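Researcher: Please predict.
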Amino acid sequence: MNFVTNTLAPYPATYPVVEGRATLLDEARKLEPMIRDAESIIENERRMPDEITDALYDNGMYRAFLPRELGGLEVHPLEWLDAVEELSRINGSVGWLCMLHSGQTFLKREVMEKLLAQDRWIMASNVGRAAGKAVRVPGGYRISGRWSFTSGSPEANWLSGRCILYDENDQPVMNPRDGLPWFIVGLWPAKDATLIDTWDGHGLRGTGSGDFEIKDLFVPREMVNEAGIWKRPFDRALYRYWFNVMAHGAHALGLARAAIDEFTGLVHVAARHGSYRQAKLGKEQINQITLGKADTMVRAARAYFWQLVEEAYNDAVESWPVNYDLRVRVQAALLNTVHVSRQAIDMIFQQAGAPAVFRGRRLERIHRDMLTAANHALMAEAAFDRVGQYLMSKDSPNGPEIEIGGIGFIPGPHPQHDRVKPWQDWVREAETRRPEATSASFSG
């Protein structure tokens, strides 16, 4: 059953052939010389040069998820993933930022049009950690908080953070949908926040993943998502599933491809005089086995992952939500892609020997970038638990039953929701219910 009320009907974006413009993959390949020239700045100064930011906005990477009526591309997710993978092959920090600065928005069209008339749309956020406190006031909210791990914040002109809503008695407001605190997401100009340079990471050093802080900032209601993940102002295929999160897999695949290419190049470099191991590099059977296994592992993970993302997009074209079994399988394929890529890079790193361990060598940086990326909370191997819970319970009389809170979740609505009331009712309530309706004493 479809639940489409938006007058802009869903449409299937084209892939892999794009008419009227170059593909994002083609555009990504053009930037390789510029990015390679800037690698020292990205790594050592821990920032993204302005010219790279400008190029990624102009060529469409930073507008890939921006709705088409707002000047965005609203691409097929696989076209975007192809490009994220390629840019990650070139440089892990650049690929990571392309995952985050995709142009996605929860704001209504008229609000976005007003903002875009003033400036371009580059937004950084931390919605995984509810590190803010929001209090309703006439016309909006007063928000305070400090959010960490905000990749891309130095070049962003808008910042966003998830907050817990509090009432006039300084008590958390509970959401009747799930019994958890009511979370809202606020958005404000970057100039109104203080950036705190806490990012000196093991890898992905150029991502600017530091902290930002605001104190008692008034945020107008039009700049707040009061319904969280249930609110979709642009009800079309690209926005009916968390396709932006899928870039974690593309990023890992790009790093794995870079490691394989780098190792292949190393075996053809003439050995230094007296270096026995370097002279043997590539000639020993274990080197050959490792390269063959790593390449096959990465290609297999990619093929399965791309297949499921395409299936999910095709499903989203027709209806919302995406089939639940498919959502579980996509999550599993995403996690598998990240960790298979990490394993492949680890295997390559071990075989490369001394050329891989020196600071500044390309393979050394790739290895650090991958270890850092795989440590992201959403990509932890522990997140496979939901997949296992689903497989164990999906055929039981009361199943499926999975844990829906915390990190590692599968996008809702979940079967638990549907057993309480049809998911269509959940969406209608999310679109109409306001936080102030949860309590008669909670007034704005």
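Model: The beta strands are 123-137, 140-150, 158-166, 183-189, 194-196, 210-220, 224-225.
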